[in-house]
Amino acid sequence: MDRAVSDTIQRRRFWKQLSFWLAGLSLLMLGLVAFRYALQTSIKRSELRTAVAERGSIIQALAANGLVLPEFEEVITAPVTTDIEDILVTEGTVVTAGQPLLELGRQELEAEVGRLQDELSLKRNSISKLRLELSRSLFDLQVRDSIKALGISSLEAALDNARRLKRVGGATQEQVEQAELELLVARLEKRQLENELATKQQSIQAELRESELEAQIRERSLREREKKLAQTVLTARRPGVVTWINKQVGASVREGEQVCKVAGLGAYRLEGSVSELYASRLQVGMPVQVRINDSLLTGAITNIRPTVENDVLAFDVGLDNPSHALLRPNLRTEIFIVTGSRPNVVRVANGAAFNGQSRQELFILEGDRARRRRVPIGLSNFDYVELAEGVRPGETVVISDMSDYEHLTEVVVRE
Question: Which of 111, 245, 271, 316 stands the most exposed, by the fewest C-beta atoms within 10 Å?
């Protein structure tokens, strides 16, 4: 009959099988490594990118984006709410001072100017009528005052006669008192007329001043509208280039709305942007280099914006030569913010071989061999990498990616 296999025998079988598979796996891995070593001991020269080490200066810089902007840009706005009637220039047109740019609708303004002119004429005519009426009223009061003065003189003479007649017995005391009372009443009436005359004169002056002020207000409103009517043909205030213009003929624009922009051609500035990760490293006054095509322009940071938007920090750059011929409005450029520099160092062109570590394994060409060296890395930028030591000027450095050969100290270079 069958007997059960003991636990001891089962464990021995398990460990024997495990050892067998581990040994096989180890042999397979060793074979793969050996195969890799066998395959990657040589490389074609055409597959290599190389550069010759040289002496020169090097700067370390932060890469940023730049936008060329005019040093000044005139914003032209609509003087009134109206429609665009005609476009006289296009974007990119070079204009001179006083050159017409676009025309706005004039019909409503012309009608309003005509209405204000009529209202001003009516007001001035009413002022003339008021002067005549006030002059007549004043003249009537003056005549009444003169008549009252004559009446007082007559009453004074009558009082004197009554007093003389009383002395000779020809008049009674009551007649004298009656004459005195009439004279007193006449004098009071004259004082009343004099006061009315003075008040009327002041009233006349006040009414005239009020009417003249109203006329002045209407005249100022008319002059303002006439000025805006003249501004319906929008012109450039200084020479420059049209960077933007509202091209929608017939579109309605509100008073104060932008309709055109004219930028100066004489000088430019840059607006840069960089990741907020470098915000702590930026300072006003730091030198920068601006790459346009194959040319480098120099300048410095003049202002750093206080806020970060969309993880981007903006700053302004003033150029040493703001009138350079390569500068154009809205041109996109590369900006390199200089954070350090060293003169007369051994440098080599930047390439895929450099990964940002402070010490790297580089391959140096020596005849038909590329030999590995451990080289300390100094400053670096988009163009060059500083080789602090271990490489002499004139030696050829492999700058392409050699990570597949990092296990070798020497690689054969085939033609």
Answer: 111
